[in-house]
Amino acid sequence: MQTDFYKTIHQEVVAEFKDRGSKFLAYAFPVSDPKDVKNRVAKLKQEHPKAIHFCFAYRLGTDGNNFRCNDDGEPSGSAGKPILGQLDSKSVTNAAIIVVRYFGGTLLGVPGLINAYKTSSALALQLTPIVQKPVLIRCKINFDYTQMNEIQRRLKRANAEIVEQNMQLFCTITADIPKNNMDEIQLAFEEMNGVEFSKII
User: Fold this and answer.
1) pLDDT tens, 20-72?
2) Residue 156 parent element (H or E)
């Protein structure tokens, strides 16, 4: 699954689905850390004190291994999995969906729940543009102050994002460099005298 680009969403949206009195509010939003999801669930619990379930799923990273789904008291596999299934059907990562359920008095049964969580999640993903972003690799560059302009020029040309910089007589820049530009920039820095370039794993 590791490529030079990944698909994600870049803004939060909410979609609503109703079935036999129950109301399902699906919040889709970008995430970079599992803590983001935990914090959003806590906020939604404050915003919706009368809702009975806060089911969610998220996927992080580009290797496909960092994901989680939570049924929050619904029958096993009836909520979190259908939500995750919608994220995966759009091949998005660094994204989460939380579905807030208000119970309407009628039991929907497992097939009804699967349909409700799946449909509300799909509706949310239809409302937000899916964007393609480059896979970034974090790197560290050590160099002499006199090389500053050249280093920054090359980073800019490679569409790198500077995360941190320490400017003394000897300087250090930590930058996220798009994977598809990595070979070219690594070669350029290795050819420069006195520049140390390393990937942060």
Assistant:
1) 999 999 999 999 999 999 999 999 999 999 999 999 999 999 887 899 999 99
2) helix 148-157
Same domain as 142, residue 117: no
Specify whether 99 is located in the same domain as 164. Answer: no
d(CA 175, CA 142): 11
Residue that terminates a domain, selected from 98, 132, 166: 132
Give Cβ neighbours of residue 201 (< 8 Å, ≥ 6 apart).
none
Nearest to 57 by CA among 104, 110, 6, 124: 124
Task: In whole angstroms, give the CA distance from residue 75 to residue 27.
Answer: 21
- Say which DSSP state 64 is in: S
Same domain for 155 and 88? no
Q: How many CB atoms lie within 10 A of CB 35?
A: 9
Whole-structure pTM value: 0.84
177-199 per-position pLDDT tens digit = 999 999 999 999 999 999 999 99
Tokens of 25: 């509010």
Q: What is the CATH number of the domain that holds 167?
A: 3.30.70.60
DSSP state of 3: -
Q: Are residues 46 and 72 in the same domain?
A: yes
Enclosing domain of residue 9 = 5-132
